[in-house]
Design goal:
566 residues, alpha+beta, five-stranded mixed sheet, 24% helix, 17% strand
Length: 566
């Protein structure tokens, strides 16, 4: 079924053109899509395209707001159009004509480019943060990724070596029948597979990218675009300038526009406070890893909204021996005064609903539950547990946090709570890029035992895996958000049960059970659930602001229309 795209009416008669200036987190810059986190999707979609995408909408009660629509594909495969096999494991995509690369010959985007994108997300140098989703779903992709990682341990990590391996090996479940036809075979049916295909990791990738190491500054400087904009200039960590892509044809792209002549992203690494960002920035897009959202944001439909966030929570680096005794972990869960953190959010983010969290999965997401095994703020009980565990004060624990958003306030509040309960803790702030790297590779990032973090859903339907699988599953495949190294066979078994479930209600029950067991085990400490937030409808001198609900209600930057002097 083909869905008509959402086209908001212009608020004024301003003409097309001008420069759209946006403040963007460093980690969300539109760099190599193979390495981009899901939170970067609003920026990556400026210059890339995937098999499916999202359309803008303001009311998430409208099913069109949360259902993927065809992008590079002519149709979303289904049993009705013969694109989905009876076993629900085989998807056939037919490529949309007229989509071209920003190359001298304006070469068409083919099914082979999508295959290359799936391979490149598995690269061992900078694997996609979304890799775990695909590895547990697409036939043969996990083996492809682990074999490439094993090969890389005794091979150089240069672009030529990486490209040679990539092009000499195949993913059994991802192949092109010809330039216009792509087949993806799953290891098992997945209720959310089409949603995963809208992530940056599933972008088509041209052969020119083989000349560069994924995620490197060189790759960022030589990106080839198939979306409405192309990167013209880029200074890593500072700014990105995008201009209209002359190879982009509006008739071949139903869900993107190119209202501005130029898009300038000023990158912020969080070293300056988000509250201090200039108020004349035309769009502020809420993305991780900032804790607490953005001051320019407003809530989306409060209690009735899909996609509440786990924001913030405490992450325990379980590789550290300090957490070997479960009573020490339980003391952490009891020490944190969640009500005080909620008051902090209400003061700094007035009008954005928050709830004290006891469960890992927030409201408006598959598998949510209201159970709370650890009441908020009980330092006396925490001290009792530490005494029974024989825990003695030693070197203060290190609690890392991002500089952006409310990260510093939350971290210092939690550090004070833990110290009062008998766990001396020191809060250490990091620029967002350094913070993200510390979470990605805790074994090599230095001695931190705790982190303040946030988790925003990567899509809104059938999305239990974006919390429970990403944050809890022990897997040899890189990626995901299990930054603390949690490993529990019973939780992994529940995750597998959820992934195998043919009906949503069965999957939800398994996600709920996995999350409950992990919270009881103190894999993480949920603190608050936060309602989704979106940028204001009408920032100064910008029209056409419309949110993309499944991308964290971020602004569709392709449709934003900056003021142009007549």
């Amino acid at each position: 079924m083909t869905v008509a795209p959402y086209r908001p009416e212009p608020a004024t008669a301003r003409r097309r053109g001008g420069v759209l200036r946006v403040v963007a987190p460093t980690d969300a810059a539109p760099l190599d899509p193979s390495c981009a986190p899901a939170s970067a999707a609003p920026f990556v979609r400026l210059h890339t395209r995937q098999l499916v995408t999202w359309q803008t909408a303001r009311d998430v009660r409208d099913w069109q707001a949360v259902t993927p629509v065809p992008d590079l594909a002519l149709e979303v495969p289904s049993t009705w159009n013969a694109g989905l096999g009876a076993s629900h494991r085989s998807y056939v995509f037919h490529m949309r004509p007229g989509v071209r690369w920003d190359t001298p010959d304006r070469r068409p985007v083919t099914a082979h480019d999508v295959v290359r994108g799936f391979k490149r997300m598995c690269n061992p140098v900078r694997p996609s943060p979304s890799l775990a989703y695909f590895a547990s779903t697409v036939r043969g992709l996990a083996d492809f990724a682990t074999a490439w990682a094993a090969e890389a341990t005794h091979r150089a990590g240069d672009a030529a070596t990486l490209a040679a391996y990539q092009n000499a090996h195949e993913i059994p479940g991802v192949f092109a029948l010809d330039d216009e036809t792509l087949v993806i075979e799953l290891a098992r049916p997945a209720l959310d597979f089409v949603h995963m295909l809208a992530l940056p990791a599933a972008s088509a990738v041209p052969v020119e990218h083989d000349a560069f190491v994924p995620g490197s500054p060189e790759a960022a400087a030589h990106l080839r675009a198939n979306g409405p904009y192309r990167v013209r200039r880029h200074r890593p960590g500072e700014w990105v300038e995008l201009v209209r892509n002359p190879a982009w044809e509006p008739a071949a792209d139903p869900y993107r526009r190119a209202e501005a002549d130029r898009v300038e992203l000023r990158l912020s690494d969080g070293a300056g406070r988000a509250d201090a960002e200039p108020t004349d920035a035309p769009a502020m897009v809420p993305v991780a890893p900032a804790v607490g959202g953005l001051p320019a944001a407003e809530p989306v439909d409060g209690d009735g909204a899909l996609g509440w966030a786990l924001d913030p929570y405490l992450l325990l680096n379980l590789r550290d021996p300090v957490w070997a005794d479960p009573r020490v972990r339980q003391a952490v869960a009891l020490a944190v005064d969640k009500a005080a953190v909620a008051d902090l959010y209400r003061r700094h983010r007035p009008g954005v609903p928050v709830r004290i969290a006891g469960s890992l999965i927030p409201p408006g997401n598959a598998g949510h539950d209201t159970a709370d095994p650890y009441p908020t703020g009980d330092p006396a009980r925490a001290r009792e547990l530490l005494a029974s565990a024989g825990h003695a004060d030693g070197t203060p624990l290190v609690l890392i946090h991002p500089h952006s958003g409310l990260g510093p306030e939350v971290a210092h509040a939690c550090a004070s709570d833990l110290t009062r309960a008998g766990l001396p803790t020191r809060a250490v702030g990091l620029a967002d890029a350094a913070y993200t790297e510390a979470l990605r590779a805790p074994a090599t990032a230095g001695g931190w035992q705790l982190a303040v973090a946030a988790r925003v859903p990567d899509w809104l339907e059938h999305n239990g895996r974006v919390f429970a699988q990403a944050m809890l599953q022990a897997t040899p495949v890189p990626g995901g958000a299990n930054h603390g190294g949690y490993a529990a066979p019973k939780v992994d078994a529940l995750i597998e049960r959820a992934l195998d479930a043919p009906e949503p209600w069965r999957a939800d029950a398994a996600w709920r059970a996995a999350a409950e067991r992990a919270v009881a085990d103190v894999a993480v400490v949920p603190i608050l659930h936060r309602a989704p937030v979106a940028a204001p409808r009408r920032p100064d001198r910008v029209d056409g602001i419309a949110p993309l609900p499944p991308q964290g209600y971020a602004v569709d930057l392709t449709a934003a229309r900056p003021g142009v002097d007549e």
